[in-house]
Design goal:
The chain has 461 residues and is α/β, with parallel strands linked by helices. Helices cover 31% and strands 14% of the residues. Strand 8 and strand 9 form a beta hairpin. The protein is globular, with a radius of gyration of 22 Å.
């Protein structure tokens, strides 16, 4: 039986609710092979016609890493993952370890101390921030927002900005630098940061509530009052759609909706735990701090990002795993010292052990994100096959505060245009922004330059 083709933007609607759909065969997604993408003639940077879209996310971790246990000894495909990167072993074939890249504008250049604020501000902009703790902040537009301007009109949200830690947007946070620099990596313009969202519930509702209408507010209040799910509002529309789908698509839709409900329950459970057993949803309040458990917080936010990509709600995202100079402690892994402080370890064995364990713990969360992306079928591949995840820090070795030889990973294959499974070492001070130009090109958002870029980064495809 032949089933009618679905528009890629089809959504399930109900009272104040718009539930976007994942990639289904009925949308024309069953004939694309990522491995064949590079061989297909006439394919532009957005991918072959009828193929899944390409996405990109940039993840920032603070305070650099312990480079001796981050950097592989060998280059090429025959490399071994060092201890910090071992959690990525299941994703080795989807991973590029990139050594030698730098953000020169994160150096002082006459401005004195403030490396942590500069490392965050420069990470995606490649521009030197104006040193001020008051008015007059200025740095540069970030790579994600360059992408959002080019491809954001094709999705419901041009971009998604996520984070774990809060923080002020004014006053000084690092040696005369504004807190806006320390607490943001995404900048819409040189003077306007894109504020990150750290409350999972607000991200969830942004993805599924249909705008800010009175109907949306009514749906939100009714859902909390009656303990209803977003799925309760779209059941009738979903039932109608199921009749139009083939067997495989019906199975995918069921799995997707089950996943949405499971994520919704995890958010509710985490909020209730944070509120000491009270049900904040029933009282229409929002905890000042989303949750205490770092891993739960990061993984729920990662799942929300996957959901946004899976439904093509956005193709561009950023995620600050910690603010610049973060002083979070990690007692759950036996590290009670503050992150920033122990990153200045001075080769003290106890502090070195603490920083390396924090670095590996962060990488474990990246491995979770990659597993979630790889678990989502799309076309003849997976969501990870059509995505680029750039993970790194604007500081190299946290003890040295250097901004060359940064810890940078690129995961995913961008529709088959990235040749992963390798460690590539570049000449020292190769601009990290060259990588970003190459990512933009693969997204269909090519730009002539970004920050101190010199051109496209070689040896990616």
């Amino acid at each position: 039986m032949r089933h009618p083709r679905l528009d890629r933007r089809t959504v399930l609607r109900g009272l104040g609710t718009a539930l976007a759909l994942p990639w289904l065969q009925a949308m024309g997604g069953g004939s694309f092979s990522p491995r064949a993408a590079r061989a297909e003639e006439g394919a532009d940077s957005r991918g072959p016609a009828g193929s899944p879209p390409r996405r990109a996310a940039w993840l920032f971790v603070p305070n650099g890493v312990h480079m001796p246990e981050w950097t592989p000894q060998k280059t090429g495909a025959d490399y071994e993952l060092p201890w910090i990167l071992e959690p990525l072993a299941p994703h080795r074939e989807n991973l590029l370890v990139l050594s030698g890249l730098a953000q020169d504008q994160a150096r002082a250049h006459g401005d004195g101390p403030g490396d942590h604020a500069r490392s965050a501000a420069v990470f995606l902009t490649g521009a030197h921030p104006v040193k001020t703790s008051g008015a007059g902040i200025r740095v540069g537009a970030s790579v994600d927002q360059v992408a959002a301007r080019a491809v954001g009109n094709q999705t419901r949200f041009p971009s998604l900005e996520l984070g774990i830690e809060g923080g002020r947007q004014n006053g000084g946070c690092d040696s005369g630098y504004s807190c806006a620099y320390s607490n943001n990596i995404s900048w819409r313009s040189p003077t306007t940061p894109m504020l990150k969202e750290r409350h999972p519930r607000l991200v969830f509702e942004r993805l599924f509530l249909d705008g800010q209408s009175a109907e949306s507010k009514e749906a939100r209040e009714r859902r909390r009052r009656r303990r209803e799910s977003v799925l309760d509002f779209v059941r009738e529309d979903a039932a109608r759609l199921q009749k139009r789908l083939g067997g495989e698509d019906r199975r995918k839709l069921d799995e997707y909706m089950t996943g949405v409900r499971e994520l919704e329950r995890r958010i509710e459970l985490s909020e209730k735990k944070r509120a000491g057993g009270r049900d904040p949803a029933a009282e229409f309040d929002l905890p000042r701090s989303p949750m205490r458990d770092f891993q739960t917080h990061v993984r729920i936010m990662s799942d929300l990002m996957v959901l946004a990509f899976q439904t093509d709600s956005t193709r561009v995202a950023t995620f600050m795993v910690g603010n610049g100079g973060s002083n979070r402690s990690y007692p759950e892994i036996g590290v009670r010292g503050a992150h920033h402080q122990i990153s200045h370890h001075g080769k003290d064995p106890k502090k070195v052990d603490g920083i390396r364990r924090i670095n590996r713990y962060h990488v474990e969360q990246l491995a979770y994100l990659l597993s979630r992306l790889k678990a989502v079928p799309e076309g003849d591949g997976t969501l990870l096959d059509n995505t680029m995840i750039c993970y790194g820090s604007g500081i190299g070795d946290g003890n040295r505060h250097n901004h060359d030889n940064l810890p940078v990973l690129l995961a995913g294959n961008a529709g088959g245009t990235v040749r992963s499974g390798r460690h590539v070492r570049y000449e020292r001070w190769t601009p990290l922004n060259d990588l970003y130009l190459s990512m933009l090109e693969r997204l269909g958002a090519a730009a002539p330059r970004l920050g101190d870029s010199k051109g496209l980064l070689k040896d990616l495809g």
